Amino acid sequence: MTLLSLMLVEQEVPKLGKKSRLPLNRLFLSVLLFFFCACDLPNKQTRPLVSVDEISNLLLRKSGVQIIDVRHPDEYLSGHIPGAVNIWSREYQIEDFHSKEFHINKFAFENLLGSKGLNARDSIFLYDAKGNYDAAQIWWLLNYYGFDKVALIDGGLISWQLVKKNLRSGYEDVTPRTFVLVGLEKKELLTNIKGIQHEKFDQIVDSRSKEEYGGKIIKNGAFRGGHIPGAIWLDHFELMNPNNFQLKSTDDIRQIMKTKGLNAHNSTVVYGHNELGSAFAIFVFTEILKMNDVSNYGGSWAEWSEDESLPIEKAEN
Question: Is 232 within 8 Å of 262 (Cβ atoms)?
Fold first, then answer.
C-alpha cells in the first residue's frame, strides 16, 4: 500500500460514520509513515566518519550493517569486528607499476563486492588496524565509482579493542550477491602527469612517509628517490592521535596544515606511492575539511620517478 492510499484511508473514515476510530487511524498512519521513512534512510549519504560505539549500536539492530575489514586475511581470521567481511589490498589493486591505472575496473570491483555478500542499498563501513590508511583506499574507490553510502570507522580496530569490544575469529557466513554501482564514474577526481607539469594546481601534497619524501627510501615500484618539486609533505600519521588512531580534531588538522603552509581554499593535488596511497589524505581534505578542489594524481610517484626527464627534489621541509 502506498503512502497516498494510506492518506486516502484516513480521509474516508468520517464518511463511514466511525469518528471514534479516527485517532487510531491517525496513529496507525503515523507509525507507518515513520516505518517507510526509516526504510529510506540507508539510501541517503552516510556520515563519512563514525565511532566504534555507533557501529556497536548498529550491530545490535542486526540489519543493514555492512562492514569491511581491510587487512591481511591472516589478521582478519585471528579476530575481527563481528559481521565484517575481509577484503585485502591485493584484491583491488593492480601491482603492475607500469600500468596507467592501479585499481581494478568497475566491473571487477562490483564482482569483488558482490562475492563478499555486500549489497548496494545499505551503507558500507570500513576499518583496518593502522589508522584507516588502507580502509580509505576502498572508500576512495567507492567514491570514484559514484557510491557515497560509505564511512570509515574512526580509530578502526585499535579503537575497537581499546574499549574492549568483542572480536570474532574465522570467516563470516557469506551469501554472494549482485552488487551494481549505479553512480557515474567520477573521472574528474583523477589528474594525470600533464596536470602537474602545466601547474594546474595551487599546491601539491606528498602523502608518503618522510623517508620516501626525502629520498632515503625507494619502495618497490619507484625508480628514483625524492619528491615532485614544490610538493609539501603530509604523512597520514600526523593527522591521527597515536594512542587510539582516531582522527585528530578539525581544528588540530587545520593547524597542522597552516604550519606546513597548506591552504584549504587552494586547488590541491595529492599523490602517494601509487594512486591509492593518497586516499587517506584526500578523505581528510574532502570529507573532514570540506575542501572543494582536490584531485588525485593517478600515476603518483611510481610514474613520476620512472621518467628521468622529470625533475625531482630530495631536500626535506
Answer: yes
**End-to-end CA separation in angstroms for the chain:** 64
Q: What is the pLDDT of residues 77-109, one digit of tens each?
A: 999 999 999 999 989 987 665 555 567 899 999
DSSP 91: G
Amino acid letter at 3?
L
* pTM to 2 decimal places: 0.83
Cα 164 from Cα 299, distance rounded (Å): 41
Extended beta strands in the chain, E state: 49-50, 66-69, 85-86, 124-127, 150-153, 190-191, 203-206, 232-233, 268-271, 294-297
136-165 pLDDT, tens per residue? 999 999 999 999 999 999 999 999 999 988
Residue 298 burial (CB < 10 Å; 0-12/13-18/19+)? buried
Q: How many helices (H) and strands (E) does the chain have?
A: 12, 10
